[in-house]
Specification:
This protein has 342 residues and is of the alpha+beta class. It has helices at 2-21, 23-26, 34-39, 41-58, 65-89, 118-128, 140-152, 228-240, 277-281, 338-341, and strands spanning 103-108, 132-136, 158-163, 172-177, 184-186, 203-207, 214-219, 247-252, 275-276, 302-306, 310-317, 331-337. Helix 1 packs parallel to helix 5 and helix 4 packs antiparallel against helix 5 (65-89).
């Protein structure tokens, strides 16, 4: 009987590990618990190795030898397979090509209600020569402070904010755009929430004269209990915003590329036609959340994406500001027009 139960448990564990490794194959990439585990894939590798050591010690006990030995093998296979996925997505490449007149630098940072302060955001934007700044959980007044600080440094910015209420900073998203990119207008409206992400706002701005990319400052709700369907709806809605040409999306998607499986219109796309800059640049496994753990075991849920007419020519996840208040790390991405690169 014990051997039979051990065999059943071994099969169940094997299936569970396979599902976590490749949830897309089973269509479970947006399922509660599985989505959360796969979002921390690097951390799962570490946990599997620690568990393998524990079961290896159990295997020293004669009655547990066969069962524990089988679990050790499964855990090691799981760790190797997931480590290979992590490495293939990129452990970090901070090389930037020389910026050209056709290049755009995008900074994205979920500021946790503007916790780092306007000065810190402005300084990072100035240092990185950001042309567009996507700031989920940043209210309008903070966005104006950032713009004023940047203007004093010779880097003026226009400010556009979307909010669902002005009580909680988390329910505001702000985007700043350099006047060098031309005049932009906000096309989302806080009065028409049916055409937006469900719980936390997204800002979409378009060029007034139609010449230039559309920018989407995104904020999908987190996949927590009670919000799973809203989260799925948010990802599907964001995918719809990237069906046209010349679109750049940046923000807190609260999802890794695993959870986005099936939402891209091409094999290389993550959402709609948009390609994820992290995977394109060798930074796809560098965690942006949470700042309480090292980036290489964190979750890459903050993204910059663009349609194929843009090429990623540089990216880095900023780790030196981990102690400034936000639980998210900033992401800086340089994009260049495909025509210019060719």
């Amino acid at each position: 009987m014990l051997r039979f139960l051990g065999a059943i448990a071994t099969v169940a564990i094997a299936v569970g590990l396979l599902v976590v490794t490749w949830p897309q194959f089973f269509g479970l990439q947006t399922t509660w618990i599985i989505a959360q585990i796969t979002s921390m894939r690097s951390l799962a590798v570490v946990a599997a190795l620690l568990a393998a050591v524990a079961f290896a010690l159990l295997a020293l006990l004669r009655p547990m030898r066969a069962f524990a030995g089988s679990i050790v093998v499964l855990l090691l296979l799981f760790a190797v397979g997931n480590a290979a996925i992590v490495v293939s997505r990129g452990l970090g490449n901070t090389t930037f090509a020389e910026k050209t007149p056709d290049s755009i630098t995008v900074l994205s940072w979920n500021t946790l209600g503007a916790a780092p302060g306007a000065a810190a955001v402005a300084q990072l934007a100035i240092d990185s020569e950001a042309d567009v700044i996507s700031l989920p959980e940043t209210p309008q007044e903070t966005g104006i402070e950032i713009a004023e600080t940047m203007r004093a440094a010779g880097r003026p910015m226009w400010v556009h904010t979307e909010w669902f209420d002005q009580i909680s900073p988390a329910r505001s998203t702000t985007v700043l755009i350099s006047p060098d990119l031309g005049d932009y207008m906000k096309v989302t409206s806080n009065e028409e929430r049916d055409d937006n992400t469900t719980v936390l706002p997204t800002v979409i701005v378009e060029p007034v004269d139609g010449d230039g990319p559309t920018f989407v400052a995104a904020h999908a709700v987190a996949p927590i209990t009670g919000q799973m369907q809203n989260w799925r709806d948010d990802l599907a809605w964001l995918a719809e915003q990237c069906q046209a040409d010349n679109v750049i999306m940046a923000g807190d998607f609260n999802a890794t590329v695993d959870s986005m499986a099936g939402l891209g219109s091409t094999p290389d796309a993550a959402l709609g036609a948009c390609v994820d800059a992290g995977r394109s640049s060798g930074n796809g496994a560098v965690g942006t959340w949470t700042t309480r753990i090292p980036a290489l075991v964190g979750s890459p849920i903050d993204h910059v994406m663009a349609t194929p007419d843009w090429t990623v020519t540089g990216m880095r996840v900023v780790t030196e500001l981990d102690g400034t208040g936000s639980d998210h790390r900033p992401v800086i991405v340089q994009l260049s027009r495909e025509v210019a690169a060719g």
